[in-house]
Design goal:
The chain is of the alpha/beta class. 48% of the residues lie in helices and 14% in strands. The protein has one domain (8-260): Rossmann fold (3-Layer(aba) Sandwich), CATH 3.40.50.720. It has nine helices and seven strands; from the N terminus they run βαβαβαβαβαβααβαα. The longest helix has 29 residues, at 106-134.
Length: 266
């Protein structure tokens, strides 16, 4: 079992969705959380809820736009300047849009690549060395079942999540004997704001997982003596992720194009 009591967790994308749920779960287990996201009001509301339950020192709020190129360096500098020891890093921040690629705003594409890939890598590079030196720590990077296949109409998003999966599994291979636990979490459709804004299928709601289920999958894997490098949340999502191995990439891309087309009639 992992002891989270007294640990400090840095959580990006903490203003809603899975980030919020990770914060609530960790503080329930005795950890202190540092909450990072753009929406300061949401972060403060979450911090107030946590403080009311666990005490005023349980949560720290750091509003920041992680799409800025210098965001990771600035965040690292602030935390090190305050002498925070980051025991748990949860790179949860990320976004994507269901749209034809040529219709995407160019700046939005750059921001998506920065948040989903560059900031995640930079934060991992900033805080992993001290964990390895202490021979203790946890890095959780949030990918997606989209990481297992190309995803027409969400081409950039799926590609970034494929990067997160590959990158994090590689780190697991490098540091599996270091005492640091490194895990890629791959949720499928989950009841969060992400799917509120990107779902084009009313039927999808029947297969939605809850945030609590994803959180439970994460900590259940971390509790194992030898956690896997990645975990897919939910039985149906595991089947979906593995099914891509049985089709040609051409067929999978064509099928996904039909399913994901934002202009199709439900």
């Amino acid at each position: 079992m992992v002891n989270y009591q007294g640990k400090t967790a840095l959580i990006t994308g903490a203003s809603s969705g899975l980030g919020e749920s990770y914060a609530l779960a960790l503080t329930d287990m005795g950890a202190h959380v540092i909450l990072v996201a753009r929406r300061a009001d949401r972060l403060r509301n979450l911090a107030d809820r946590i403080s009311a339950k666990h005490g005023i020192l349980a949560a720290t709020v750091l509003p920041m736009d992680l799409s800025r190129k210098d965001a990771a360096a600035s965040l690292s500098k602030i935390l090190k300047g305050r002498n925070y020891q980051i025991d748990i890093l949860i790179n949860n921040a990320g976004f994507g849009h269901a749209v034809h690629f040529i219709d995407e705003d160019p700046q939005s594409v750059i921001d998506e690549l920065t948040v989903n890939v560059s900031t995640l890598v930079e934060l991992t590079h900033a805080f992993l060395p001290a964990m390895v030196e202490r021979k203790d720590g946890i890095v959780i990077n949030i990918a997606s079942t989209a990481a297992f296949q190309s995803l027409p109409f969400m081409a950039v998003y799926a590609a970034t999540k494929a990067f997160v999966l590959s990158f994090t599994e590689a780190l697991w291979g490098e540091y599996r004997r270091s005492g640091v636990k490194i895990l890629t979490v791959c949720p499928g459709p989950t009841a969060t704001e992400f799917f509120d804004s990107n779902s084009n299928s009313p039927a999808l709601g029947k297969y939605m997982r809850t945030r609590d289920e994803v959180i439970a999958t994460t900590f259940r894997e971390l509790a194992k003596a030898r956690p896997k490098p990645s975990v897919v949340d939910g039985g149906l999502n595991k089947v979906t992720a593995l099914s891509s191995r049985f089709f040609t990439r051409r067929f999978a891309a064509k099928l996904s194009a039909v399913i994901m087309n934002p202009n199709k009639k439900n």
